[in-house]
Design brief:
7 helices, Rossmann fold, 15 strands, alpha/beta, 3 domains, 7-stranded mixed β-sheet, Elongation Factor Tu (Ef-tu), domain 3, 6-stranded antiparallel beta barrel
Amino acid sequence: MPANRIVPLVDGEAVGGGCFLLTFQHEETAREARPGQFVMIKAGVSAEPPLRRPFSILSVDAERDTFTLFVKAVGRVSGALAAMAPGDKALCLGPLGRPFTLPPDHTEALLVAGGYGIAPFRFLGVELRRAGARARLLYGGRTAADLPLLERLSGLGLDVVPVTEDGSLGERGLVTLPLEAYLDRAPGPVRLYACGPEAMMHAVARIAAARSLPAEVSLDPWMGCGIGTCLACVVRVQGEEEERWRYRCACTEGPVFDAARVVWPGEDRSRARLAAAAGGAR
């Protein structure tokens, strides 16, 4: 169960591009967390700054009772976390949110990560390997510097495909290009997972809809509390039986959502327009 905890930092490592791997120790978080879940955390135990920030859980080590976060220092809270030294303590709430759904038997998992969106996929990759599932990771960014975890993903048993927009590493172009090329020749059933910039996830959702493939996306709206109280992270989601979309809290009913149910910016998700769009996609 999620709880408010004081967690010590046991290891911190810079991985380039202002990004850090921060490993904290806490038994319950390490043992209870599932791929796709996150924590709300801030450096120190004082009241300032008042709000924590959400970070996907990159990995867990149940033997050491630790969990690791992938943090990019871009603001006050993330910068303070990056500046922590081993032994320093942080206030942490978690694990939080809805995790990913593992694919059925004999279904290949295709993971599509854009830049910082790689954060939940190392954890998911480990779980897929344990489940004996086939998995391929498409790891995209603008340049090679946007793929700082590439080498660390090599031992997970995934087929890792690096993609950069400028061609400085791996395939050249948007990460959705090799995704579509692979789907054109995929030998069996697949399930898509995406995390990264909103435009990229929207593109993956469109590809999945056009091919009638199941897909999950991990959304990243601004969060204030992490427990559904502040309503800062609401997103528009179409219900299974509802005619109109409804607001849902990404922190409690996500951050992982069925891509087909998300109402992306600019979309009209009335039933009539959904049916027309599905027909046009084919």
